[in-house]
Amino acid sequence: MERYYQPEIECAPVEKIKEWQNEKLVRQVRHVYDNVAYYRNLMQEKGVTPDDIRSTDDLYKLPFLTKADLRDAYPYGLLAKPLADCVRIQSTSGTTGKRVVAFYTQKDVDLWEDCCARAIVAAGGTREDVCQVCYGYGLFTGGPGLHGGSHKVGCLTLPMSSGNTERQIQFMLDLQSTILCCTPSYAAYIGETLRDMGYTKDDIHLKAGIFGAEPWTQEMRRDIENMLGIKAYDIYGLTETSGPGVSFECSEQTGMHINEDHFLAEIIDPNTGEVLPEGSKGELVFTSLDKEAFPLLRYRTRDICVLRREKCSCGRTHIKMSKPMGRSDDMMIIRGVNVFPSQIETVLMKQGYSSNYQIVVDRVGSTDTFDVFVEIMEAQFADTVRELTLQEEKLAGDMKLMLGINPKVHLVQPKSIARSEGKAVRVVDKRKLHD
Amino acid sequence: MSVEQISVFLENKSGQLADVCTVLAENGMNLRALSIADTKEYGILRVIVPNAEGALKVLRGAGYTCKITPVLAVEIDDRPGGMARALQVLSAAGISVEYAYAFISHKAGCAHMILRVSDMEETVGTLERAGIPILETDALLEN
Asked: Fewest Cβ atoms nearer than 10 Å: which of A83, A107, A142, A433?
């Protein structure tokens, strides 16, 4: 029997959902226009006023927001509430070292946690469950989001954060965790470690996993399911809109239901910005309908996917998005962390290196490898191994500061990196991430 | 007092050393001395040639990252303990050697040692006081 966290919302008739969206959009546009000068200016440039937005049919009239806007407006430029009304920030690394900071009122935190609770219940979670949260805690939204959702459902929550895998497994065994929340690659790693420690899926009590924050394939899903003896559910979200739980998978596993009462989704042509009809493949754009502190309108996610509203066997009526099939920019997700080539470039430029570099990402077992090859120039060339090793370490250290994850830096000979039309090929991603 | 050494960055791949030597050979550059520092991924080739500026130009033209590094050339006795004595003198003066390599001289009973040190002036003074001859470029190349 399918269970829901908020059945009256999750299974509401589509007309009802549209009605909520129309009302909320009109109110939200007014709220943003009145309180966010940055967006008001964008609207004025386009000659749009809140009066022009009478329903979701008028959404196309509004200007887009991009990551560049978030960077320009950092830190308070998109804040729509007094700081005194805010209770939390979460953050993600930005493209040039500036972070993206999202603000939450208590109501914002509540609705975010509700979204995560819906995902946990859709994965079979109840107050009888023991939910082990191994997403990172802190500024990253993964840990706090699922943690809050788990509380709302009433699960016994294990706030493990990531790392120390043997301890994770010991807790899993001793406290009989039934639900696992983490990145899919970490779930696979837990499975491998479990086996290495001499246990099998029969020794643990997991029944479901809620995995997100990075791309993964159906093949990876089956592997994780077999290793851990669970059903694996996908979850999607981004810090800019709140965090995980913007959409989540149900038992049918044919896409993720978007929490449409809070997030209005569109698919656009990434080149022209034109709204595409349902079922088209394009860039996903979100409008936050309820968020108070950081209400982004028409935020371009850069994720490429398809939206479909079909009758779902789970009974939920909210529209479904496919797994992201790629990006309309050059962002990579490495070990669950967003990485842009421009961030690597910024570090290289600061230290006087050339822009001839190559990022090579691969997956060995369940762990992403992250190598940066940099062509050495005379200005950086020292003729002792000690100095060159220090330079490699300094570059890796600065990249770690910028990204939060540690690359291995390799100095290489000039012109040794493959060129395409005269420019070094910046990214070689050998992982199979999409089906 | 110093001698010009060419240092070249090379990736640790087969054929790299042959390639760089070929470039020098094709331009009539005779190698007087050579040493390589290597790691798993790259190496630093260090050579002494008669015309350092010319070699630098040729290697740059062939796309190598290279530079001229001033090093000290020292004459030592070609007998057991010849090199040890020079190094002991430096060690006693608290001078640390970043790298060193040695080769036989055409002059009977002599060998040459190339040294890279952090403090060139202090090293020169120390060696001179110990009566260890320091060679100028011409003397190094002729013998």
From this structure: A83
